[in-house]
Each structure stands twice: as C-alpha cells, then as structure tokens.
Write a structure and sequence with these properties.
It is a single chain. With about 80 residues, the chain is mostly helical. It has one domain. Helices cover about 85% and strands about 0% of the residues. The protein is built from three helices and no strands. The protein has helices at about 1-25, 30-60, 70-75. The longest helix is centred in the middle third of the chain and has 33 residues, at about 30-60. It is flat. The relative contact order is 0.06.
Length: about 80
C-alpha cells in the first residue's frame, strides 16, 4: 500500500506535468489522427482478447480446435 502511494505521488508530481506538456504540444490535426489510430488499435486488441478468452474457455471444456484460426490461437 505504501509503495503504490509513493509511486502515485511520484507520478503526479514528476511524470504527469512533463507528460501533459508533451501532449499539449501535439498539433490538433495530428492529435486527432493519433487518437483514432489508438482507438482502432484498442478495439482490435479487445476483440482479439475476447477471442482468446473464448477459446481458452472452450479448451478447458475439452472442445478441440476445429479450424486453422483456433489452432493458431491455441499455440
């Protein structure tokens, strides 16, 4: 608990102001593009995670991989 508290204080006092200044320096047009790219990446990552968890659940129930995608996920 103390470790996380100290780490949080360090982040707020040292890292956040520098990071905020860096983000505010990004031009608006580039910022919108970067935001969309990150948004699409997070959607892709979330979908892939859902597929992996679903396959993990099927594998625990003893369901074998029936196609190439499921075999690839199992690896």
């Amino acid at each position: 608990m103390i470790f996380w508290g100290v780490l949080g204080l360090i982040f707020i006092r040292i890292v956040y102001p520098k990071l905020s200044h860096l983000i505010e320096g990004i031009p608006n047009k580039k910022g919108v593009l970067i935001s969309w790219i990150l948004c699409l990446f997070l959607i892709f990552d979330s979908g892939l995670s859902c597929i992996a968890v679903s396959r993990w659940s099927q594998r625990n129930q003893g369901t074998p991989a029936t196609n190439e995608l499921r075999r690839k996920i199992d690896q």
